[in-house]
Design brief:
The protein is α/β, with parallel strands linked by helices and 276 residues long. It has a single domain, classed as Alkaline Phosphatase, subunit A. The chain is built from eleven helices and nine strands. It has a nine-stranded mixed β-sheet with strand order 4-5-3-6-1-7-8-2-9, with helices on both faces. A hairpin with a 7-residue loop joins strand 4 and strand 5. The two termini are 17 Å apart. 53% of the residues are buried. Bound molecules: zinc ion. The site of zinc ion (ZN) has 6 residues, from loops.
């Protein structure tokens, strides 16, 4: 049977806030239906380098994406391209920087919001370029893409938590907390709905980077770098581990779940200890 992996990246969700405010998914963890580990993002703890690191399993020193201003296509092999080359379908409802990294750059708002092209790494994509796009819209687009092409790898990437962290007062603000709670509800609802239809599917819920109490990120503090990572699916072991893992483990973990070979340049091993 073919495996499906849903990767939900809640932009700017700090680990401790995920543990505190993602109520539904933390309940699953308590009930032994999920695994949890904390991941440490790369440096700088900014969005574009983190997107590239998550998808390539290597940091900017290897994949060349070293800042939010790195607008070139990412030359390192990535999870979408590796899946596509093996005949798997890929999709995403994501910020437009993902399109620039893996499909085409620069992003052209006139033509690039909706892309369906089997020759591109993210084959079935909805790419938004307003940071204020409501998370509800992004989950709705992910449902449309799922219905449209049934991707084996589908990434859902909502932005409201990061927007509050950057623009509405930082992680200490009521807006950040409220957006965490809302994103947690939407994530829980999406997983519950898909799981009912697809009991064999895997779900990974994580973030690109965290947020400082007073706002912003990019630096080398735990607030900025530590992000949550929950895993759900049929062979997930109900482990709630205290260790912090390297965010570069995500790409090989996803490839392994999809039954694909892990390229040798991905030197951080996959999180296989969290699976039977
Ligand atoms: Zn971000």
């Amino acid at each position: 049977m073919e495996t499906t992996v849903y990767l939900i990246i809640v932009d700017g969700l700090r680990a401790d806030f995920g543990r505190r405010y993602f109520a539904g998914i933390n309940r699953w963890l308590k009930e032994g239906k999920a695994a949890y580990t904390t991941l440490r993002s790369g440096l700088p703890s900014d969005s574009r380098p983190s997107y590239a690191l998550i998808a390539t399993g290597v940091d900017g020193s290897v994949n060349t994406i070293t800042s939010n201003g790195s607008r070139q296509r990412c030359p390192a092999p990535n999870i979408f391209g590796l899946a596509r080359q093996k005949g798997l379908r890929t999709g995403g409802a994501m910020y437009h920087w993902w399109s620039e990294l893996f499909n085409k750059t620069p992003f052209d708002p006139a033509t690039d919001h909706r892309q369906y092209d089997l020759e591109r790494d993210i084959q079935d994509g909805y790419f938004y370029n307003s940071d204020e796009t409501p998370d509800e819209v992004i989950f709705a687009k992910a449902r449309e893409i799922r219905a449209h092409s049934r991707p084996h790898l589908l990434v859902i990437h909502p932005m409201s938590v990061d927007y509050a962290g950057d623009n509405l007062g930082g992680a200490a603000s009521a807006a950040y907390r409220e957006n965490c709670i809302r994103a947690g509800e939407l994530t829980h609802q999406f997983i519950e709905e898909v799981m009912a239809e697809e009991p064999g599917a895997y779900f990974i819920v994580t973030a690109d980077h965290g947020a400082r109490d007073q706002g912003g990120h990019g630096g080398d503090s735990d607030e900025e770098r530590l992000v949550p990572c929950w895993l759900l699916g049929p062979k997930v072991r109900p482990i709630d581990e205290q260790e912090t893992r390297d965010q570069r483990a995500l790409a090989p973990t996803i490839l392994w779940l999809l039954g694909l070979a892990i390229p040798p340049h991905m030197t951080v091993p996959p999180l296989t200890h969290l699976f039977d």
